[in-house]
Design a protein that fits this description.
Helices cover 2% and strands 48% of the residues. With 371 residues, it is mostly beta strands. The longest helix has 6 residues. It starts with a strand and ends with a strand.
């Protein structure tokens, strides 16, 4: 099993897939590949065939990192949050013929950029470039994208898991949402009224304060702040209220920025915060408070804790898929391991003059050599 140590003629970085910007460094890595070879034929003596067969190919990796050496990275705790499952992915549409796209949240890593009709996934560095300082992608295709696309990326602006289910309305809404008062709701698949994915929530109010309630309640912790984020489309000038309710009374959420009044008839991203005063099961209510209310649409609905506890044992954790890249001291790639999933973590703490060292173990799906 090859072993590489950071600083001993190499540098070892952790990256999001499809990016070249490190989110952390590793102290050392060992990796191993196994193609499960065996001789064809069976039994003792001369085999029936003089070649070999291979089984399922696997790659394993173990790594260490000096925790204190993360200090100084602009995203010093991001890697820890990601492998703990505590960072959120955001999906956004990109219009056909676009030559650039600026994400609505801080961009720290791109998961995918996929054309909506053909399903082709674009490759960073070949099909587009990224300026992480301005959160902007520039597409290399002459005339812009040939069709609409969707980007999925990781942001440092939202730190927790999404507590809302069916958040992009890809399945029926009956078990998740209900109408408020005399309004009606439905899942729409009309492309013009869908932000991402295949569906959105259509809300048709009859009178003031009609709307929809997210009824798939979730438990909140008292005194902790939560963030509600969603895409909304409706009629310019309509006013929308967002409240949280714990079974006793609805309480207004605090809007972030310009949330509360629709500025146009295009999709807008709104955020609200709320802080429950007791441990409770919470539902979210969204209503149109305009005197003569118009229909409106909700998509990409997320609810998350603002500053969640980071724990690798958290019940909602899921493996984070990343890249481990080994570079020489001049910055040239020696090799990288793709599709890395770290599933086991342990730590060794020495005396007060020592760094805290964490050990990671997992597997990888592919290997890329020198470039």
């Amino acid at each position: 099993m090859p072993k590489y140590i950071d600083g001993a003629n190499v540098q070892i970085f952790v990256l999001h897939e499809s990016t070249s910007t490190p989110i952390g460094k590793l102290q050392s890595i060992d990796y191993d590949t196994d193609v499960s070879m065996r001789a064809r034929g069976a039994g003792l003596g001369e085999p029936a065939h003089d070649d070999v067969a291979t089984g399922e190919r696997t790659g394993s990796i173990s790594a260490t990192r000096k925790l204190m050496r993360l200090v100084g990275y602009p995203t010093a705790d991001l890697f820890s949050r990601l492998i703990s499952g505590a960072a959120m992915e955001i999906r956004e549409p990109i219009a056909s013929t676009s030559t650039t796209h600026t994400t609505s949240e801080t961009l720290v890593g791109i998961v995918s950029v996929q054309l909506a009709t053909s399903g082709v996934r674009l490759v960073e560095g070949e099909d587009y470039g990224v300026n992480y300082a301005t959160d902007t992608l520039s597409f290399y295709v002459t005339g812009g994208l040939p069709e609409a696309a969707e980007i999925t990326y990781v942001t440092s602006d939202l730190r927790g898991w999404n507590l809302a289910e069916n958040y992009v309305f890809d399945i029926a809404i009956a078990d998740f949402w209900s109408a408020i008062a005399t309004g009606t709701i439905a899942r729409t698949t009309t492309a013009a009224n869908v932000y991402v994915g295949t569906g959105a929530l259509a809300i048709t109010p009859s009178v003031t304060d009609d709307g929809a309630s997210y009824d798939r309640t979730f438990t909140c912790y008292p005194g902790r702040e939560y963030v509600i984020r969603f895409a909304i489309k409706g009629t310019s000038g309509d006013t929308i209220a967002v409240e949280w309710e714990d079974g006793t009374a609805a309480v207004a959420c605090t809007p972030v920025g310009t949330a509360g009044t629709l500025a146009s008839s295009d999709w807008e991203i709104w955020k609200y915060t709320f802080t429950p005063d007791e441990a409770s099961n919470v539902s979210i209510q969204i209503t149109n408070t305009t005197t003569a209310p118009n229909a409106f649409y909700i998509d990409h609905f997320t609810v998350s804790e603002s500053d969640p506890k980071i724990s690798p044992l958290a019940a909602r954790s899921r493996p984070y898929r990343c890249v481990v890249q080994v570079r020489d001291l001049d910055g040239a790639q020696l090799f990288k391991l793709l599709g890395v999933h770290f599933g086991k973590r342990s730590a060794t703490i020495g005396d007060v003059n020592s760094d805290a060292e964490e050990s990671l173990e997992g597997f990888f799906l592919d290997y890329e050599g020198e470039v």
